[in-house]
Amino acid sequence: MERLQKVMAHAGVASRRASEKLIEEGRVKVNGTVVKEMGLNVRSSDVISVDNVPITQEQKYYFLLNKPRGVISSSDDPKGRKTVVDFFSGIDHRVYPVGRLDYDTTGVILVTNDGELTNQLTHPSYGVEKTYIAKVEGLINKKAISQLEKGVVIDGYKTQPAKARIIDINPKTKTSLVELVIHEGKNHQVKKMLKAVGYPVEKLNRDKYAFLTAEGLLSGEWRELKHYEVNKLKQLVDESYSS
């Protein structure tokens, strides 16, 4: 759900402040009823009209990008670096990333203009799983994996229990491949967790977001989510909310 005045602004009715004035003047209806309450949240299915003329709500778009290294997970960057949104310059709609991936982290990131779903997917209480594959320094052991699974202390807080497993250990290069599944999204969390158990990250890739992968996409390529995939994401957050 999004605030009424925000939906009106996105639909091109007026600026957000001017939309608030229209609401105050009693010129806006939601599902046939005059609304004067400021900050009312509306759904995409609600019928909104201004001076009895229905407005068209912004169509929602959902994309999956296989993010390359050296790209900022933001809508813009003051330093002029490339952002994930730059890959969608040909899309005639304002979109933004769902959450973030570090500058040097690769893999799955969602891009959309659905503010409601973005807030739900990025809120830790909904517990959406993110799966990472990390190449770390050192030959990781089962004790470290057990610590990751129980939660480790970083930045003064203990992380939630995670799923972790060893994919490969390379004695020649003295590196290991580790899969880590987390529900949170703290800043640099995966890197800090692995460093906390003694294995700094050399490379990091988000292999999966919920059930979505970058299979079939080269680095920098993207695709639009299928209708059933969007519905499945919404179902995941609905189930998390009700549980």
Automatic annotation (TrEMBL):
Pfam families: PseudoU_synth_2, S4. Residues 2-69 form the RNA-binding S4 domain. Keywords: Isomerase, RNA-binding. Gene3D superfamilies: Alpha-L RNA-binding motif (3.30.70.1560), Pseudouridine synthase I, catalytic domain, N-terminal subdomain (3.30.70.580), RNA-binding S4 domain (3.10.290.10). Its EC number is 5.4.99.-. It is an enzyme of class 5 (isomerase). SMART domains: S4 (SM00363). One of its GO terms (molecular function) is rRNA pseudouridine synthase activity. GO terms for biological process: enzyme-directed rRNA pseudouridine synthesis. GO terms for cellular component: cytosol. Belongs to the pseudouridine synthase RsuA family. PANTHER family: PSEUDOURIDINE SYNTHASE FAMILY PROTEIN-RELATED, RNA-BINDING S4 DOMAIN-CONTAINING PROTEIN. This is Pseudouridine synthase. The lineage of its organism: Bacteria, Bacillati, Bacillota, Bacilli, Lactobacillales.
